[in-house]
């Protein structure tokens, strides 16, 4: 596994090609040691073909990453997907293979990617905190962050979470969270990216997960998110039950 991880990671760092990322004038690069719970999902191929960016996700325990089913995809005969952990801590990171057969899926579209090896959490690399089931984050600000074809840099932008009534008026499916900050939002390739709130000391609380494919034409207008608080019981049951 270590040899495979080294090959995948080396190829990725030489120039993985990915789609657009968190876009807009308010986007900034995130420095080393920040948002270390946010990971990249890459797809690798045989015959020396360079891996590509597929999606983002958020580390919630040493063994599990929360993302979306559409973003995570399924492995094929000629392709495999890995979670790259630790790059936002300032290092090269480690590619960890996903155990798809043991990765629970929720009917709404979320997936808990079970890793074949535990991630080593330390003073820098930390898992995100889950919100309580009754948490209401509407009307609050949060940080949207994502990986992709941005010279291996984690991109982030502060967004304002609208009320669910406001989201419905903007055409967002009932029950989802959303933001509509002009010039700041998610585009194609940002699936599975989280919005989080800073709890200080390098720890972040997970608020939402970018839903399936975002419309590039409207990425600067409205971004929809799964409300993670609604799924806290399901997540805890699958991880610890």
From TrEMBL:
Residues 1-24 form the signal peptide. InterPro entries: Peptidase_S1_PA (IPR009003), Peptidase_S1_PA_chymotrypsin (IPR043504), Ser/Thr_Proteases_Immune/Dev (IPR051487), Trypsin_dom (IPR001254). Transmembrane segments: none annotated. It holds the Pfam family Trypsin. One of its GO terms (biological process) is proteolysis. The keyword Oxidoreductase does not apply. Residues 21-240 form the Peptidase S1 domain. Keywords: Disulfide bond, Signal. SMART domains: Tryp_SPc. The keyword rRNA-binding does not apply. GO terms for molecular function: serine-type endopeptidase activity. Belongs to the peptidase S1 family. CLIP subfamily. This is Plasma kallikrein-like. The gene is LOC117639321.
């Amino acid at each position: 596994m270590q040899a495979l991880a080294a090959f995948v990671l080396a190829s990725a760092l030489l120039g993985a090609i990915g789609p657009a990322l968190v876009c807009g004038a308010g986007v900034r690069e995130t420095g080393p040691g920040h948002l270390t719970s946010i990971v990249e999902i890459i797809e690798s191929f045989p015959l020396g073909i360079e891996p590509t960016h597929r999606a983002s996700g958020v580390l919630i325990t040493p063994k599990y990453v929360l993302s979306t089913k559409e973003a995570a995809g399924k492995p094929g005969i000629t392709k495999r997907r890995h979670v790259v952990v630790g790059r936002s801590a300032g290092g090269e990171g480690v590619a960890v293979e996903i155990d798809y057969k043991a990765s629970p899926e929720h009917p709404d579209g979320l997936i808990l990617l079970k890793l074949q090896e535990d991630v080593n959490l330390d003073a820098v690399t930390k898992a995100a905190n889950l919100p309580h089931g009754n948490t209401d984050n509407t009307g609050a600000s949060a940080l949207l962050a994502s990986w992709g074809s941005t010279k291996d840099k984690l991109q982030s932008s502060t967004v304002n979470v609208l009320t669910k009534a406001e989201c419905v008026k903007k055409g967002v499916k009932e029950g989802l969270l959303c933001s509509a900050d002009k010039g700041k939002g998610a585009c194609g390739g940002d699936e599975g990216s989280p919005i989080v709130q800073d709890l200080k000391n390098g720890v972040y609380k997970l608020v939402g997960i970018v839903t399936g494919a975002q419309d590039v034409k409207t990425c600067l207008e409205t971004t929809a998110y799964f409300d993670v608080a609604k799924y806290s019981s399901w997540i805890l049951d699958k991880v610890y039950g």
